[in-house]
Amino acid sequence: MATLEEITQLISGLALQLKAQPPTEECEQSSSLDLSIAKLTQSLNLHDDDGASTSRVLDTALSLMCFKAPQVFDSVLEYTVKTIASVLSSSVGCKVFRLGKEDVLRVGSSISRRDCFDLIDVVGGDTLSDLEERGVPSRLLLHALLRAAVSAPSCRYLDPSMVVLDADLSARRSIAASKLVSHLPVELSSVKDKVPLRLLLWFLDPLILKRDISEMLQETMNRPFLSLPKELHERKDWHSILICLVLSPAMFTATRALLHDWFLLTGLRSILQLLIDLVSVVLDVISIPTRWGISMELGSKLPFSSAYYPYNNVWLRSLAGPISSEGLLQIVNWIIDFKQPGPSINPSAAKVAFLDHKSLWSLAISFPSWFYFASVLVFADKSFKEVLYLEGTVGENAAVRYLAWILNPFDKTRQDLLSGNLIKLARHWTSKQVVSSVQETRTLGLKRRLKKPKVDDISKEGFTFGNQHGCQAISLWLQEYQNTAYECDFDPQVSMFFRWIPLGIFTGWCSSDINESGCEFLLHYAATGTMLHSVRRNEGFAMKDAIAGASLVFNLTDIVDRMSESLFETVCIADSYICKVKSRTARYLIKCVQRLTQPDASEVAGVQTLLDLVSRLEKWRTQGQEVALIEAELENAIHVLKSKFSST
Questions:
Q1: 604 and 553 in one domain?
Q2: How far apart (Å, rounded) are the C-alpha atoms in residues 105 and 94?
Q3: What's the pLDDT tens digit per position in 209-237?
Q4: Coil, strand or helix: which one is 93?
Q5: CB contact at 8 A, 467 and 536
Q6: Domain with 127 in it
Q7: b/e map 3-19, b = 16+ CB within 10 Å
Q8: Are residues 167 and 211 in the same domain?
Q9: Are residues 12 and 130 both part of a single domain?
Q10: Whole-model pTM?
Q11: Does any domain span residue 610?
């Protein structure tokens, strides 16, 4: 096995060769076959005092074989790189050696991590760049270096009972990784049985993983209409990140923990959406690897989904499975049976245990279809329950328990309070009743007295279809709903889960009682947490509200699309259900899109955001059946958006 000094000499020799000027082709182009033969004859003269005769024999012979000097030079570089890579690879293995009177098993590289960092200092400077400039593949050398560094121990054994940890390795690790990250290829290597370079870099320095995920998050925040599954499939660098996450369950778990912690700190919907999309896509890659460009051979070696969820993987099978009322009942039973912390447990520690990335709650919020399904069951009328084969109030009780647990997973008392209030509000809605007593509500620290609804505001069949009456009835119901938030210490503008619950109203059959203006009112509240003051005009419709509203419609349609695959027996019924939801959201979506087609939109939202909007609109049209009532307006909006790009 080669020593460190020998490897260093090889690398130094390679660096010197790269600095040397390669032979030119001018003399070779002017030479002829006769001249080559003459040189060969001269070089074979035994009386020639020139000590380089052997070299001339080789050069001339290669010339006769149609090899040119630059080709020979490049071949020398290439085989030098292969030699260094082979030596580094041979240093990684498993070996038993004696240390004193003890046998020690060493797994990994025989080169210490400190020495590996020294080698990276030599190679990571100009050597890799010079190789790339000469057209010599440097990926083999980079892979061997990273593999040796990742496999190298971070401590030294003075004897079997004494382990010395190198204290300064953490800082050197980051420096070494920063020297190699610029040489990282955009796409994955096609070499079989090789760990991707990006994945090796993640193992060498986890901060590289954090940087990659942070950059992805930043772009999704700047592009609110971005379709992440589509981007992960088509964009080479993101596809590389996805495959690395699939190949390493440990890195996927670390990514989930990272995004989950960021979400707890900020509460941003964009972070949660990125987490949801990554979870969905990774599970899809595991189930159908060929769809994502992974060969059947490699796909057969991928671990089961439980490896990606070392905690609560029993829950994973239910949450990732088909949506059904039986499945929801099973999940709720697990929630009820889950042990609450005892009184001796510190409340702060108990709260962390309920909310961290290992918790059941963190797993549940990664599958929002169950949350929306529970919201639908809360407000479902008799006809919808018949479709789902639900009897009595079992489904409703399970649904409110699940929603209350999502909103507050660690406080059983507040869960019970919220469950009771949700059942009360749902019955007000499904029985076509709106509280007519005078309500006192607090919004943003101010008290405001609501008007008592008139008798004409509520018809015998439900909310009237008059524009003003429909909005006023829904406004009254939402005010009562917000009172529930204040009783349970929720801020509706901050708690997006609380704002999303009323979406179950028009994703169930009972949405036929709401006119278009009422649907706009509910959607705007779910998107922004504020009341829509006017549904007739777009004055004062802020750009950020338009973006939030359109994003909500797209995400809601995607979730309804996935839910319908499990809930309905035929494609025809599923398409009809999707179309029903789309028809209720279409008018609000058009208003949001029209705001985004105004002259200042490209300056405020950005051209890339509008390009993504066109893609999402075209996808939205194909989900379920087309909505004929707004097809002309939708086509015109897409045409206006495309004309903006053609003129720039």
A1: yes
A2: 7
A3: 999 999 999 999 999 999 999 999 999 99
A4: strand
A5: yes
A6: 4-25+68-181
A7: eeeebeebbeebbeebe
A8: no
A9: yes
A10: 0.82
A11: yes
